Amino acid sequence: MTLGRTGERDLACENTPEAADERRRLSTLDLVGLAAGGVVGSGWLLAAGPAFWGLGADAIWGWVAGGALMLLIAAVMVELGIAVPKTGGLIFLPLQAAGPLVATVVAAGLWIVYAANPASEAAAMVRGLAYKYPWLLENGDRLAKAGELGGSVARPYDLSNSGLLCAVAFLALIMAVNLLPQRRLIRLNLVVTVVKVLIPVLIVVCLWRYALDTAHSCVPKDVWYLSGQEGTKAALQARAGHPKAQDFLYMVLGGSIIYAYIGFQAPLDFAGNVKRRGRGEAARLRWAVYGTLVGAFVLYTALQWIFGGLCGELTGNMLASPYAQFATALSGMWLVWLIRLNAVLSPMGSGIVFTHALTREVAALSRAHLTHRGLQTARRASFRFRGAEIDAFWMILLVNFTIGLVMLLLVKGSWEDLVALNSVPALVVYAMPGVVLVALKPPGFPGARRVLHLVLSSTAFVAIAVVIHEAGWGKVWRGMAAVAVGSALLLCLPLLARLDLPFLGRLLRRYDARDHVSRIARPDDPAVRPVLLFLTHLAVLVLCTGLRDALDEHFRDVGLVTLPVAALSAAVLFPLLVRACRRYMAAVPPTLPGPRREPEPGAAVTAGT
């Protein structure tokens, strides 16, 4: 199998169209802005309390476990982005390696993740204002004195009707910002990212010396009202800080720790638009992704340590940010106002990054005819403003706004429910790049590098299966159901449009996408085996998680059986998936951009420019 190559380019002449294209490409700073802008959202603001209640002093290890998992997944995705640099590659590459059926399942998961994120960030922005306007939340008055109640507040962060309207306005603002020209949007995002990262750094710098004094600390049962669980005060205090070994990974995902790391892949969504001169594309991608994850890990663990050291200053008010309460008690109002500003700015910045990345991924989906082809045509992708042509994919933004609006209304703006719709589908999407990387066997990499690809990819595939299993039935069934519904819509809408049914046929008459679902009825089709194996993998995870939930009350150690089954199933299915993908590519050779040669050590990369 030979991959299609884009060819080497001569960038020596500054006046060539290629030199102009190079100036439009993303620099290392731009990529870091995308990665950090996607990662640093609402997770750090809202996850420390539940993590401390559940894990106590071990909460820091929860962030370590989440960071290690994300670094493992990132290593696989970065290697794939370097080997096959393609904008929109999270959908395009599974399409080329495994066929349209697998690509549709991955696309459904990715669309849900990227559309749910702006909705969750809009809900988080409303929560950031609730300290001043408690009527934005359904239970605002009770949350203001949560520490004095006899039990937790059921669905504490459901938005009121006014809060929902405010969240919709914030969601519309996020979409509107993405109508800016790409270069201006990237620069704006960089400025927002610098501000929203600097503020939590200031929190650590200004409060660390107070955290050293144990007089300001507390024990996990003191923050029972931040648990995110339902129950009486006594019951939640009894469970606080005593996690079982099998519950640790549940707290990592269920406590929104994984959610706080999601977003690092934003530079990989634009892997085909990275500057090539100087340090090269590969080094820029590595710096952006690895640097962001390591920086986020250091920042998140420091913030968790600050929380554990100062939680004795909490007032029992769930409307105010814990860090704002610490600053009020110990530092100064200037830091309080910065934290309150960041409670709105930080989620908005993350939502902007995810929305911008989604337009490119959906455009790739549309170009492959896996969804309506008209979403990325020139008439629906660009518009003229003050004489300039702006490529903003406005139709995709409108569709994504509608999806986000539906999600907000279905869960009444609950940030926790939106996170559940985000985390599990994200892990489903993250599982496939490793299969693609090993199946492609990209040229230009030595044998040792390919062995590394195999080890990283298979380990990440099994690790993702273990984390999904430990996420808990409530989150798994919601996330998997969302992926199933999204996949069914993408697969069945072309078939329904072709059938021209009464009423529905009139609505779908202009829907222009290829019908791939009918291929499932042809077992000899090379695209069928990969999707059946991938769906089997997901079904085993759902079954194991469901059995654990159903039998746990009667058999407390049932997880010790279902967990190895989930891990073993993933270990067995991974090579089968790789083999099925190679069989597909043997029948349908892929056309892919090849890796560009990285500069030799000591070579004058910019010579002659």
Automatic annotation (TrEMBL):
Any Pfam family: AA_permease_2
Mode of membrane association: Multi-pass membrane protein
Stored InterPro entries: AA/rel_permease1 (IPR002293), AA_Transporter_AGT (IPR052962)
Transmembrane parts of this sequence: 31-53, 59-78, 90-114, 162-181, 188-211, 248-266, 287-307, 319-339, 392-412, 418-439, 451-468, 480-501, 527-548, 560-578
Keywords: Membrane, Transmembrane, Transmembrane helix
Subcellular location field: Membrane
Descriptive protein name: APC family permease
Lineage: Bacteria, Bacillati, Actinomycetota, Actinomycetes, Kitasatosporales
